[in-house]
């Protein structure tokens, strides 16, 4: 009898493992295809062009940049609120950025930290390949890096997504970032966050939120779809990095998943259209106010991700394209069979 029980147990474990592996590989792309994109994908290093600008010929260098990267150049100086056509004034402002005591150290750190961007390019190539495979009608933007004196971290305009590398220097600059931003945002200001932030910007631009009722459930499931897509397109990323959490924060969510869902239901928040309430669940914050002061921020997004994962696991016929286009959030919730 013991031998029979042992044999049945082995079969059960093997079946579970097979199902898990099959699910993980459901949207997997052939490694040869990924390799092909890797060789074609390159980040435009507008940040290096600015940092290495010849300060003795700033006007001439800027004119060359304007010719080489006209769209980036125009939007970059527009973001800095500088008239790009006034090359003399633009040169003066850039020289201030390059010679300022604080930001010259920041720019030097950018040059060191991002001297080799090949690992980031490989991850970005993965995202591009997944997009081209599953969303062939979407025109892919080019990716460029820039420095702006820590003005903004993401710059998007038609055909381009820019990453402000001076916002992603990691733990050595956390004390500096704390003076410029909120402490709860600083933990993600590291090089490892760039692929995720880029993918999120790409997804938001390609798959916009659409809902007539604009309820909490609609918003958290939309955010959950974005996180699910990131997990597919960056399969080597950890759940905490995808969620923008520390391991401790993710552990808290996992431990109290049932309580989180119960609180949303019991407080009758799920179908609310209250803007402030939705922001409390989905916006960046030190904690998610309707849940607990011990919780991390954006718990609504995380629970939405769990619902979408459950939906995709229980509906094997749903493709990524179908998920992207489906704005029937009520149906997704019901068919997810989500039971934390």
Please provide a written account of the structure.
- The protein is mainly alpha-helical.
- It is built from 19 helices and four strands.
- A four-stranded mixed beta sheet has the order 1-2-4-3, with helices on both faces.
- The two termini are 35 Å apart.
Write a concise synopsis of the structure shown.
With 340 residues, this protein is mainly alpha-helical.
Can you lay out the helices and strands and say which pair or pack?
Elements: H1 2-24, H2 31-38, E1 44-45, H3 46-51, H4 58-68, H5 70-79, H6 87-99, H7 101-113, H8 118-134, E2 142-146, E3 154-157, E4 160-164, H9 174-180, H10 183-186, H11 194-206, H12 216-233, H13 239-243, H14 247-255, H15 257-266, H16 275-282, H17 299-313, H18 320-325, H19 329-336
Parallel strand pairs: 1-2, 2-4
Antiparallel strand pairs: 3-4
Helix pairs in contact: 2-8, 4-5, 4-6, 8-11, 11-12, 12-16, 12-17, 12-19, 17-19
């Amino acid at each position: 009898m013991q031998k029979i029980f042992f044999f049945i147990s082995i079969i059960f474990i093997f079946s579970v493992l097979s199902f898990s592996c099959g699910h993980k590989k459901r949207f997997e792309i052939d490694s040869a295809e990924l390799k092909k994109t890797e060789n074609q994908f390159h980040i435009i290093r507008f940040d290096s062009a600015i940092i290495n600008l010849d300060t003795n010929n700033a006007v001439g260098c800027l004119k060359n940049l304007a010719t080489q990267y006209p769209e980036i150049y125009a939007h970059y100086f527009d973001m800095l609120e500088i008239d790009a056509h006034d090359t003399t004034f633009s040169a003066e402002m850039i020289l201030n950025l390059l010679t300022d005591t604080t930001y010259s150290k920041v720019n030097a750190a950018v040059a060191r930290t991002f001297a080799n961007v090949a690992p980031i390019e490989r991850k970005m190539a993965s995202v591009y390949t997944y997009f081209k495979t599953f969303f062939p009608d979407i025109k892919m933007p080019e990716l460029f890096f820039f420095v702006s004196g820590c003005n903004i971290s993401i710059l998007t305009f038609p055909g381009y997504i820019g990453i402000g590398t001076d916002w992603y220097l990691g733990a050595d600059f956390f004390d500096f970032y704390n003076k410029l931003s909120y402490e709860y945002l600083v933990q993600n200001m590291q090089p490892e966050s760039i692929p995720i932030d880029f993918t999120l910007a790409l997804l938001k631009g390609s798959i916009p939120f659409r809902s007539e009722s604009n309820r909490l459930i609609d918003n958290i499931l939309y955010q959950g779809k974005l996180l699910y897509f990131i997990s597919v397109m960056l399969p080597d990323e950890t759940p905490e990095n995808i969620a923008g959490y520390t391991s401790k924060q993710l552990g808290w969510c996992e431990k109290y998943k049932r309580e989180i869902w119960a609180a949303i239901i019991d407080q009758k928040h799920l179908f609310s259209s209250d803007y402030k309430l939705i922001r409390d669940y989905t916006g960046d914050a030190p904690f998610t106010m309707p849940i607990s002061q011990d919780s991390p921020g954006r718990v609504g997004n995380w629970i939405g991700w769990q619902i979408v994962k459950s939906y995709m696991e229980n509906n094997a016929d749903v493709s990524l394209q179908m998920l992207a286009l489906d704005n029937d959030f009520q149906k997704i919730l019901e068919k997810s069979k989500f039971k934390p």
